[in-house]
Design a protein that fits this description.
- The protein is an all-alpha fold.
- The protein folds into 2 domains: 48 residues; 39 residues.
- The chain contains 3 helices and no strands.
- The longest helix has 36 residues.
């Protein structure tokens, strides 16, 4: 998370809430909201793909493409041999 943006937002929220709720309640509410947002982020973070995850996936895709090409060429050679035997 970009903490400078988060900090600025907290300050703005605190100013607005301070006028409505008073200093103590405003700070408590902002701290509570901040902890909930952080907790939600931590809970969801595991679902994000890292650069390493993406790199591994790209490697698997490339390997799979190569295997498909190899099997396709092998099947073509087998068919040509079969046609030659039958023809």
């Amino acid at each position: 998370m970009n903490t400078s943006i988060m900090h600025l937002t907290n300050i703005q929220l605190l100013k607005i809430l301070r006028e409505k709720l008073g200093e103590d309640q405003a700070e408590s509410l902002v701290t509570f909201v901040e902890s909930k947002v952080e907790q939600e982020f931590e809970d969801k973070k595991a679902m994000f793909a890292t650069k390493e995850d993406i790199s591994k996936l790209e490697t698997k895709i490339e390997s799979s493409k190569n295997q498909v090409i190899i099997w396709t060429i092998g099947a073509m050679i087998a068919l040509l041999g079969l046609f030659k035997i039958l023809g």
